[in-house]
UniProtKB/TrEMBL annotation:
Zn(2+) binds at residues 53, 78, 87. NADP(+) binds at residues 155, 169, 171, 201, 272-278. PROSITE patterns: CYT_DCMP_DEAMINASES_1 (PS00903), CYT_DCMP_DEAMINASES_2 (PS51747). It catalyses: 5-amino-6-(5-phospho-D-ribitylamino)uracil + NADP(+) = 5-amino-6-(5-phospho-D-ribosylamino)uracil + NADPH + H(+); 2,5-diamino-6-hydroxy-4-(5-phosphoribosylamino)-pyrimidine + H2O + H(+) = 5-amino-6-(5-phospho-D-ribosylamino)uracil + NH4(+). Substrate binds at residues 185, 205, 208, 270. Its cofactor is Zn(2+). It comes from Aeromicrobium flavum. This is Riboflavin biosynthesis protein RibD. Pfam families: dCMP_cyt_deam_1, RibD_C. Binds 1 zinc ion. The lineage of its organism: Bacteria, Bacillati, Actinomycetota, Actinomycetes, Propionibacteriales. In the C-terminal section; belongs to the HTP reductase family. In the N-terminal section; belongs to the cytidine and deoxycytidylate deaminase family. CDD domains: Riboflavin_deaminase-reductase.
């Protein structure tokens, strides 16, 4: 069982990993090295593909002091050679005596725990696993489910409308909320909208440096435009700030298949109640972030278009965060199952 010192070190490793910002296509990882008496020797982090993994970063800082140490790592040390060598080998060569980690590796780097055990290293897994799982959830989702994680963001009035009858939608929420959105966009490696919304609003679909973002934006997310409508080349979505890909298919599964094949892990979906409704209807939205403005429209376009016909089609949202952002309310949650789906399963059983 992990000691209190090791558990505290895991929390520091998690906090360290969160300071780095987006590391996709690699996971964010933190590592704390402890001496045999529990003294902190080094804190390492992974800063993105091609850079040292967190374990190696910490080992380089500790040098010879790493011999006999305990490595506390948020993710199971990798056991494969990619752009860098296996962390298991680095830990063994450094003479580490014990490894404590949180989340098991679901990807090609799996097997590190077994390799370390086979080499005589004391290994413990699952320490603060809920927190370390959350740390890598976007990266892990792709490997576990074979598709990118999808976050749907919308802004609406209190009566659930995202645009006026004439189509205008700028701006429903406050500048404070729009700055807040940039922080969440910064987690993603693709920003997606439908052609209708692009034609109507001429958005840039980029992360803008108007807030205290966790990383410099020399690496903008891929811009993805879904739909067959032709968009003029002078629209801002085709500027040189970021790459853009148009996918004619409106089938959500096909869209995600193409993005998966392109190496995308986390899609930020916004701009288009019809497109959002298609993903919602297929159960392909993994997280909802809604910004509710303290205002009413009375008529206009709903935030989501779908084919629900009865309350049995209602899909609940498990709310994990409810926060005031300036004058607006931010709601973050995970979609649940519609009652109809549960009833259908009962009938089949």
């Amino acid at each position: 069982m992990a000691s209190q010192t090791e558990t505290d070190a895991m929390r520091r490793a998690i906090d360290a990993a969160r300071t780095v910002g987006r590391t996709l296509p690699n996971p964010p990882v933190g590592c704390v090295l402890l001496s045999p008496d529990g003294t902190e020797l080094a804190v390492g982090v992974h800063r993105g593909a091609g850079t040292d993994h967190a374990e190696v970063d910490a080992l380089k800082q500790a040098g010879e002091r790493a011999r006999g140490a305990t490595a506390v790592v948020t993710l199971e040390p990798c056991h494969h050679t990619g752009r860098t060598g296996p962390c298991t080998q680095a830990l063994l060569e450094a003479g580490v005596a014990r490894v404590v980690f949180g989340t098991s590796d679901p990807a090609e780097g799996a097997g590190g725990a077994k390799a370390l055990l086979d080499a005589g290293i004391d290994v413990e897994s699952g320490v603060l696993a809920d927190e370390t799982d959350d740390l890598v959830r976007f990266w892990a989702h792709r490997h576990l489910h074979g598709r990118p994680f999808v976050t749907w963001k919308y802004a609406a009035t209190l009566d659930g409308l995202s645009a006026a009858p004439d189509g205008t939608s700028k701006w429903i929420t406050s500048e404070t909320a729009r700055r807040d959105v940039q922080r969440f966009r910064a987690e993603c490696d693709a920003i997606m909208a439908g052609t209708y919304s692009v034609l109507a609003d001429d958005p840039r679909l980029t992360v803008r440096d108007e807030a205290d973002l966790p990383l410099p934006y020399d690496r903008q997310p891929l811009r993805v435009v879904v739909g067959e409508s032709k968009i003029p080349s002078y629209y801002r979505v085709f500027d040189r700030v970021a790459p853009t890909r148009q996918i004619p298919s409106r089938d959500p599964h096909e869209v995600l298949k193409q993005l998966f094949e392109a190496g995308i892990h986390h899609v930020w979906l916004e701009g288009g109640p019809r497109l959002a409704g298609a993903f919602w209807g297929e159960g392909l939205i993994d997280r909802v972030i809604g910004y509710m403005a303290p205002a009413m429209l009375g008529s206009g376009r709903a935030a989501l278009e779908g084919e629900a016909t009865t309350l049995a089609d209602i899909r609940p949202i498990d709310i994990s965060d409810l926060t005031m952002v300036g004058p607006d309310i931010r709601i973050i949650g995970t979609p649940g199952r519609a009652p109809r789906e549960d009833m259908d399963e009962e009938v089949q059983d």
